[in-house]
Amino acid sequence: MSAPSVYAAINAVSAAFARNGIAKTHLNAGDDYRYRSIDDLLDRLGPLLAEHRLCVLPRALEREVAERREEGQRLLLQVAVRVKYKLVSVDDGSCHSVEAFGEALDVSDKATAKAMSAAYKSAMVQTFCIPLSGTEDPDRTTTRLAAPTHLPEPVQGWEQWCRDIEDVVAVCESEQAITLVHERNRDLLQALSRERADLYRRLGECFAGRRKALEARSAPKPDAKKRSPRAKTGAAAPEREKADA
């Protein structure tokens, strides 16, 4: 007894991709990673589905929507979907279903469409085991992760964090202590300069003011005007004359 035609079609499409996968030719400059676009997948998968008489029918099962705000305070819509894809063979009507999730953010009305595209790409890549092409084995080298370039806002918020730093600087008793506070908080200070320039300037004035106060306190004070030895001798002379008398 032969297997249902749907599995033969899935196998044929997988075999075609095994010979020549889809490379990650696009670069996400913001997060610095390469990816395969949905258009890359559709351009390659569409002709193969037609050739092997295989239909892919989507059905959205779940959809969740939430509002988020990005760093610039712009409102975003976050959409998450769960989608079932039914793969149907035209030859005998046999079918097989797979499910996938997709998530997306968008400032207008494209979040759901983006989430559906993400779900479709994930489902098809896994169903047909689509490999990369023109890339080496990922275990050949080990990537050393760099320190994150962006630090999140402190849990107490930038305003309170700045007040805490000002309190620490106010009790520093030496230039070395002030420098140590600055060095220990260097990364957060850099993040503050990007996120809240006004608070960054205020902290800069706080550091500078404390340094000036310490310099003024440690500067040598001018001595009180001293009397000349001649004046002292003159003032003492009458007493000696009285004693001689």
SSE inventory with pairings:
Elements: H1 5-19, E1 26-28, E2 33-35, H2 38-51, E3 54-69, E4 75-89, E5 95-106, H3 111-127, H4 157-170, H5 175-184, H6 186-195, H7 197-218, H8 229-244
Antiparallel strand pairs: 1-2, 3-4, 4-5
What does this structure look like?
With 245 residues, the chain is an alpha+beta fold. The chain has 2 domains: 130 residues, Enolase-like, domain 1 (2-Layer Sandwich); 62 residues, no CATH class. Helix content is 48%, strand content 20%. The strands form 2 sheets. A 3-stranded antiparallel beta sheet has the order 3-4-5. Strands 1-2 form a two-stranded antiparallel sheet. Strand 4 and strand 5 form a beta hairpin. Helix 4 runs parallel beside helix 7 and helix 6 packs across helix 7. The longest helix is centred in the last third of the chain and has 22 residues. The radius of gyration is 37 Å and the shape is elongated. The model has no long low-confidence stretch (mean pLDDT 83).
Strand order of the biggest β-sheet: 3-4-5
The CATH superfamily of the largest domain is identified as DNA repair protein Rad52/59/22
- How many structural domains can be distinguished in the coordinates? 2
The name of the CATH topology of the largest domain is Enolase-like, domain 1
Helix fraction by DSSP (H/I, runs of at least 4)? 40-55%
CATH architecture of the largest domain: 2-Layer Sandwich
Spans where pLDDT lies below 50 across 5 or more residues: none
What is the CATH domain class of the largest domain?
A: Alpha Beta
Computed Rg:
37 Å
Q: DSSP strand (E) fraction?
A: 15-25%
